[in-house]
Design goal:
about 350 residues, alpha/beta, Peroxisomal Thiolase, Chain A, domain 1, five-stranded mixed beta sheet, globular, binds oxa(dethia)-CoA
């Protein structure tokens, strides 16, 4: 008789706590503008950014990720030994292997959990939340640490007029664990891979663009992030509000059921246009961490979530819509119940 494979079955999941780390150095627009022939006024009008933070040499991507994870664990009242899976979303950990996730586990003193990194750029955190939910639901994992951490200043050309004023550094982390009621809704995710050149780390470590079988070192040049701003802007405004509405719909909710909207912090004009396209009622609190912290890619949603809960403690335990999008182009969004007050 053919034997059947037995599987585990898990529970619903929820975000138990969020923690973050912001670099010490606050950088105003005035420190950026001269090199790129820009102005404080232009940057604020076009992006909403007033200041951002750049990490110093004593604040590596691993340092920031570890400190954000420690903050989240403390609020969740859990130890690292309670974590069985760690997912790190980053595009700025400067090693191909081994992963940032294993380095963070080692630093936190529990080198045993399942550990891996994901590259979904600015959507990486929402990808991680989706996976954590599925792992818990299927019984694969019980407590998952999802971290978004970036030190993009290491990969930004300070003379590039298209990027120098946008990108910034930081880390955010959530602990996701079992729950009786659904605390994380179905993910709405996908990509527009035909536009994968719209945001690039350029040049890559090797030059594989013409012929993937002929790997040649890219002249020893350091890769920096580049983007076609307007193209990404248009895609974000028109496609991401639709994706976010689908995420709401698949959770059986409408914008009127929401308490908070925490989209990727790329540009305040994108955030405001999305909210308008979605007919978001004024009662929904909209995260605007971009104003003081710039665009921190995979770290932007958990950083914005932590800041929002600090500013609006009444949002603990309430419903928020997340949507991340970026290089690939890729996106992911879901409704979550924000963590209860620690
Ligand atoms: O996180 C990953 C996802 N990334 C994004 O979502 C980024 C999406 N894109 C954007 O946020 C915007 O496209 C930017 C903020 C990057 C650029 O804003 P924009 O309004 O799209 O600027 P633009 O490229 O259309 O340029 C408008 C004007 C031009 O001048 P003219 O031709 O109108 O006289 C540019 O030369 O602004 C000028 N300009 C600048 N001026 C001062 C372009 N860059 C700058 C600058 N400083 N840095």
């Amino acid at each position: 008789m053919t034997k059947v494979i037995s599987t585990k079955s898990g529970t619903e999941s929820q975000i138990l706590a969020v923690g973050s780390y912001r670099p010490k150095r606050i950088v105003p627009n005035s420190e950026i503008v001269d090199r790129i022939d820009s102005s404080d006024e232009w940057i604020q009008q076009r992006t909403g950014i007033e200041t951002r933070r750049f990490a110093g040499s004593d604040e590596t991507v691993l340092d920031m990720a570890t400190w954000a994870a420690e903050a989240a664990l403390k609020k969740a009242k859990l130890a690292i030994s309670d974590i069985d899976t760690i997912i790190v979303a980053t595009i700025t950990f400067p090693f191909q292997a081994p992963s940032a996730a294993t380095a963070i586990l080692q630093r936190l003193g529990h080198p045993k959990a399942a550990a891996f990194d994901i590259n979904a750029a600015c959507a990486g955190f929402s990808y991680g939340v989706a996976m954590a939910h599925d792992f818990i639901k299927s019984g694969t994992s019980k407590h998952v640490l999802v971290i978004g951490a970036e030190k993009i200043s290491d990969f930004t050309d300070p003379n590039d007029r298209a990027t120098a004023f946008i990108f910034a550094d930081g880390a955010g982390a959530v602990v996701i664990g079992p729950s009786r009621d659904a605390g994380i809704g179905p993910v709405e995710w996908g990509s527009d891979a035909d536009s994968r050149d719209a945001i690039l780390m350029n040049p890559s470590w090797v030059d594989i663009r013409d012929n993937e079988t002929q790997l040649t070192k890219a002249g020893g040049k350091w890769p920096n992030i580049s983007q076609e701003g307007q193209k990404v802007f248009r895609w974000a405004v028109f496609s991401m509000s639709k994706a976010a509405l689908k995420a709401l719909d698949s959770a059986g909710l409408t914008v009127n059921d929401l308490d908070a909207f925490i989209p990727h912090q790329a540009n305040i004009r994108i955030i405001e246009t999305m909210a308008k396209e979605m007919d978001m009622p004024e009662s929904v609190v909209i995260a605007d961490d971009i104003r003081t912290n710039g665009n921190t890619s995979a770290a932007s949603i958990p950083l914005a979530m932590d800041a929002l809960l600090d500013k609006h403690p009444e949002l603990h335990g309430k419903l928020a819509l997340l949507i991340g999008y970026g290089a690939g182009l890729v996106y992911a969004g879901q409704v979550v119940r924000l963590p209860e007050k620690p």
